[in-house]
Design brief:
The complex is a heterodimer of chains A (362) and B (465).
Chain A: H1 2-36, E1 42-46, H2 51-55, E2 61-68, E3 91-94, H3 103-110, E4 112-115, E5 125-128, H4 129-135, E6 142-146, E7 152-162, E8 171-174, H5 175-184, E9 190-196, H6 201-211, E10 215-218, H7 220-258, H8 260-268, H9 273-314, H10 325-351, H11 355-360
Parallel strand pairs in A: 3-8, 5-7
Antiparallel strand pairs in A: 1-9, 1-10, 2-9, 4-7, 5-8, 6-7
Chain B: H1 3-16, H2 18-59, E1 62-65, H3 77-88, E2 92-101, H4 103-109, H5 132-137, E3 140-144, E4 147-150, H6 151-158, E5 172-174, H7 180-186, E6 191-194, E7 202-206, H8 207-213, H9 217-220, E8 224-229, E9 232-244, E10 266-269, H10 272-276, E11 280-289, H11 294-304, E12 309-310, H12 313-369, H13 374-414, H14 423-453, H15 457-462
Parallel strand pairs in B: 7-9
Antiparallel strand pairs in B: 1-11, 1-12, 2-5, 2-11, 3-4, 3-8, 6-9, 7-10, 8-9
Helix pairs in contact in B: 1-13, 2-12, 2-13, 2-14, 12-13, 12-14, 13-14
Chain lengths: 362, 465
């Protein structure tokens, strides 16, 4: 009988520990491919970048790019109009007024090779190293910033030259230059690409942006698929913890009730309630701790197998590791709380029962 | 003994052993509610994948860029071999070849007087002479029934704010439109009227073309068409055999950067000779895989064949593949987690009910003593269990559904997704739970029959649980 209960408990504990551990490790593994595919970005369309602070103030994120809606890359603004060599050049906006402390700005300033850093005080134009070599322009040159139809927006001074990275544009204009442009293109708006620093924030960020009625786009399929996987893991954890708690309670109560007559006889022979409690606790702990130890060993193989499978599936390196502290604590606390609850209920009920009545029970 | 009597005996037995039966009902309640809750969660997530992911699958395809010889316009030997190889791959359902007219090349082919010119062969690679004047003024038109319909005017009216550039040619001419199914896969609804092109020189027009020029189907169906560039026929004597419903969708996802504006198209069925005469740029091979899982094989194939270039759809393919993998992982995790839970729950229910029977052997012995046969005892036991199960089930039903509802709400706030629970899903889960419990009952009944009910009457009477 004891072995029978032990087997049930072992199975449940193995499942619970495995899922708890998977809930900790697997989502992190699933985030990496999304990051590699640049699918963890949100593009928000705004008239004024300052709104970002109000709406997403509670989250930490990086501003990766800032372009404009009608083209994302500013290739329809021909700073170098008339020069056929620069057909299709692409530019972006530096948010130096709305978000002067942004990571975009600090990252950009690190890439400056020549000229001035971008600050909130001064606006202008920065060109890439490649563009400088091709065009022969240098810092301090002034260019006319025109629309495609030839309308002049303003004069722009080249303030600096930056080193081109993997995804860098040909040039950057500062925010005040964009504002000057926006007066000529009122239907346009900023398109700001952000990356949440903690990936899981993306779900809440999407909710907040949706609630605020802002226009934004993100990789809906991938993010939704991942959120469903997170829901699945969380739901299974909840189901397993409830199952574990209720079934362990049921089993312990069942066992204690079966042995009630035995303990009543012992009590009649002079066994005090403290000794009875010790016996019951020892019995329960024997059952629980042995099942728990076996379950931790079994679940380790189980979790590593799933982790290996996930690694192979997503072509990422899966490192075998020991349990996280939270998994061990949650399982231990759940099980011990349950044992304490059952014992408390048992002793409270036994206080009201006459020993003779229990012994006479058939 | 009649069935009604058996049921009455079972009911009385339950009432006599209220305490024990309460425990059994409580056990059943816990198990059923948890099982129901788990099933609802699992099934609703599966439903999500089935509805959402399968939807994308229908529109999914991989675009590849083949190479053609700049002089003759024919496919290069490497490209031809790779394309043939691709078509033979087991993961490819079909391929559609698509080409956009190279407008600067047209300019070289047709001068402003409308006379054909020999193409210049000495142009440096990647350099196109670009004459805005030509794009805006040259009439690329369709002649039908003695009237001329200008494509360019139509395209300009739709895209007034876009200047036609090298990147946006407004003509799609397809070399091969094979079957209705391929059209659907490509994202087009089937033919509105007419039939599929079956031989070279047959074409389809889309409804945008008709509606823009105020034409009816009868005006163009089975009529001879000519495609004119600057007044010179590019194709003549093409027969319009069908009308397509234009089903381009507005695409809002940044990772699906297909150009998706609506413009009039001619879908032309032609043989390779005719196809090679077209000055094409951005020719693509649209390879439609059987399923998401094939994407990986296609990508590997593409990588190993240097003759093909990736288009941006490779990024899209990766996203779909990722979704497919998450789905696969969820299935595996669910299977491996649900399996031990089900065993544990079954064992728990089994032990509860077996204990209940063990307690009742004595009373069953008394029934045997007054002449009841084994069949009736099994019947009483079954009714007894059925009543207990129903009591537990009725109590568990709202609790399971409530748990699901609460979880769904919490998840909705926490994540940006919402879980759906249609009524059919609830019934499906109830059916599955019932089936599971019925199988368990059958197992317990068989076990009880073997262990207790076939004992001699005296043994049964002496049994004290």
């Amino acid at each position: 009988m004891f072995l029978f209960y032990w087997a049930i408990l072992f199975l449940l504990l193995t499942g619970t520990i495995a899922v708890l551990e998977m809930n900790q490790k697997i989502p992190d593994m699933l985030e990496q491919p999304l990051h590699d595919m640049y699918a963890d970005r949100i593009i928000i369309y705004l008239e004024d970048a300052g709104i970002m602070k109000e709406v997403l103030g509670d989250f930490s994120y990086q501003t990766e790019f800032c372009g404009n809606r009608n083209g994302f890359w500013l290739d329809n603004l021909s700073v170098f109009q008339g020069n056929d060599e620069f057909w299709g050049i692409q530019g972006l906006i530096l948010l130096n007024h709305s978000l002067p402390d942004s990571s975009q700005l600090s990252e950009f300033n690190k890439s400056i090779m020549d000229g001035e850093l971008c600050s909130s005080q001064k606006g202008g134009l920065w060109i890439s190293e490649v563009m400088q070599k091709q065009s022969g322009f240098s810092c301090g040159d002034t260019l006319a910033f025109c629309l495609n139809d030839g309308t002049e927006v303003c004069d722009l001074t080249i303030l600096g030259v930056f080193a081109e990275g993997d995804r860098a544009p040909h040039y950057y204009i500062s925010e005040d230059v964009y504002q000057a442009y926006a007066r000529f293109a009122p239907e346009d708006s900023l398109a700001i690409t952000i990356i949440p620093e903690v990936f899981r924030d993306i779900f809440q960020m999407v909710s907040v942006l949706r609630e605020q009625g802002l226009e934004f786009i993100y990789s809906e399929e991938a993010i939704n698929a991942l959120s469903m996987a997170f829901i699945l893991f969380s739901a299974i954890v909840a189901v397993l913890l409830i199952s574990l708690f209720s079934i362990l309670t049921h089993l312990l109560q069942f066992y204690y009730n079966k042995r009630r007559r035995f303990f009543a006889v012992n009590a009649a022979l002079g066994l005090d309630s403290r000794s009875t409690a010790k016996i019951l606790i020892l019995t329960a702990e024997c059952l629980v701790l042995s099942a728990l130890t076996a379950a931790f060993i079994a679940a380790l193989f189980y979790v590593n197998a799933i982790r290996q499978y996930t690694g192979d599936l997503f072509e990422i390196t899966a490192k075998n590791s020991f349990y996280s502290l939270s998994t061990i604590l949650i399982t231990l606390i759940t099980v011990q709380a349950d044992v304490a609850l059952v014992l408390y209920t048992f002793f409270r009920r036994n206080k009201r029962i006459n020993i003779i009545d229990v012994i006479r029970e058939n | 003994m009649k069935r009604k009597d058996c049921m009455m005996v079972a009911w009385r037995d339950i009432r006599c052993k209220r305490k024990f039966c309460f425990q059994a009902v409580r056990g059943i309640f816990a198990i059923v509610s948890l099982l129901l809750f788990s099933l609802l969660i699992v099934r609703s997530i599966h439903l999500y994948y089935k509805n959402e992911v399968a939807e994308y699958q229908g529109y999914y395809s991989v675009f590849l860029w083949p190479e053609r010889d700049s002089g003759s316009g024919a496919l290069t030997e490497n490209s031809r071999q790779a394309m043939e190889l691709l078509a033979k791959q087991p993961f490819i359902e079909s391929t559609i070849y698509q080409g956009e007219l190279d407008l600067p090349a047209f300019e070289r082919l047709f001068n402003s007087n409308g006379e054909a010119q020999e193409p210049e062969s000495e142009l440096p690679e990647g350099v196109h002479s670009f004459n805005e004047e030509f794009i805006d003024t040259q009439k690329v038109s369709v002649e039908c029934g003695g009237k001329t319909y200008c494509f360019q005017e139509e395209a300009s009216s739709l895209h007034s704010k876009f200047r036609p550039t090298l990147y946006h040619a407004d003509y799609d001419i397809f070399s091969k439109v094979v079957t209705d199914a391929e059209l659907i896969l490509y994202g087009y609804s089937p033919l509105i009227s007419g039939r599929e092109p079956k031989q070279a020189g047959e074409a389809l027009l889309d409804e945008t073309f008709l509606s823009h020029f105020g034409l009816t189907e009868s005006d163009v169906l089975e009529e001879k068409l000519s495609v004119m560039v600057g007044g010179v026929p590019l194709f003549s004597d093409i027969t319009c055999v069908g009308i397509l419903r234009d089903a381009y969708l507005e695409n809002v996802d940044i990772f699906k950067r297909l150009s998706s504006y609506v413009s009039a198209c001619i879908w032309l069925s032609c043989d390779d000779t005719l196809f090679n005469t077209l000055p094409l740029r951005r020719e693509t091979v649209n390879a439609i895989p059987y399923d998401f899982e094939s994407v990986k094989e296609i990508n590997e194939f593409v990588k190993s064949n240097q003759t093909y270039m990736y288009s941006f759809d490779a990024e899209e393919a990766e996203i779909f593949l990722y979704v497919s993998k998450v789905k696969q992982l969820s299935n595996v995790v669910l299977f491996f987690v649900i399996f031990p839970i089900l065993i544990a729950l079954s064992l728990s229910l089994y032990s509860t009910l077996l204990e209940h029977i063990r307690e009742s052997v004595n009373s069953y012995g008394m029934l045997s003593a007054i002449g009841m046969d084994v069949r009736d005892k099994v019947r009483i036991f079954s009714y007894e269990f059925l009543i207990l199960y129903l009591l537990g089930f009725v109590a568990a039903l709202p609790v399971g559904a409530l748990l699901f509802y609460l979880t769904s709400n919490v998840m909705k706030n926490q994540f940006a997704s919402e879980m759906q629970m249609p009524l059919s899903l609830l019934f499906e889960c109830l059916g599955l739970v019932s089936l599971f419990v019925a199988a368990l009952t059958a197992l317990i009944t068989a076990s009880v029959l073997r262990r207790y009910f076939r004992l001699p009457i005296l043994e049964q009477l002496r049994h004290n649980g």
